[in-house]
């Protein structure tokens, strides 16, 4: 039998808590209530993997509480942290959009409560309420666009630094 803390960890989110998460921006209370009551919560302990790079999957997750890190494997096999995500952030959406294997590993840094959204649950929302489905997809697209802008900035800075180092070192010779 689960203890009281375990019951609280696996309890469904509230409509109010979902309203604060950007993924669910502009959804009605009715839809938020439906999502809060129908989507499962997954509890992950510190150090546990949510999923690994290369895994096949068709679900995404929203961090309700806790903290997770996103790790990307480089050409030499070493993993590098590319993001640290906390309450209100989401991850894994690419597997729903492009049906490709996981592009990174996600590991809990602290005990975490995650809301699991499967492609089937999104499909059910599409059939039930096209407007709400469209809002969620638009919110995902906005976040992917924001992440791409950040990545572009990091790449531009990296290239500029490498170029500066190359030019400075070649002028010294």
Question: What does this protein look like?
Answer:
47% of the residues lie in helices and 26% in strands. It has 6 helices and 6 strands; from the N terminus they run αααβββββαβαα. With 173 residues, the protein is α+β, with helices and mostly antiparallel strands. α5 (119-128) packs across α6 (130-172). A hairpin with a 5-residue loop joins β3 and β4 (79-85). It has a single domain (4-144), classed as Jelly Rolls (Sandwich).
**Number of beta-strand segments:** 6
Rg (CA only): 19 Å
Q: Please report the distance between the alpha carbons of the first and last residues.
A: 72 Å
Name the overall outline.
globular
- Into which percentage range does the β-strand content fall? 25-35%
CATH topology: Jelly Rolls
Largest sheet: 6 strands, antiparallel
Order of helices and strands: HHHEEEEEHEHH
In total, the number of domains comes to 1
* CATH architectural name: Sandwich
Number of helices: 6
Structural class: alpha+beta
Helix fraction by DSSP (H/I, runs of at least 4): 40-55%
CATH superfamily: Jelly Rolls
Q: Low-confidence runs (pLDDT<50, min 5 residues)?
A: none
CATH C-level category: Mainly Beta
Round the mean pLDDT to the nearest integer and report it. Answer: 93
Characteristic key phrases:
173 residues, alpha+beta, Jelly Rolls, six-stranded antiparallel beta sheet
Concise account of the structure shown:
By secondary structure, this protein is an alpha+beta fold. The chain is built from six helices and six strands; from the N terminus they run αααβββββαβαα. The model has no long low-confidence stretch (mean pLDDT 93).
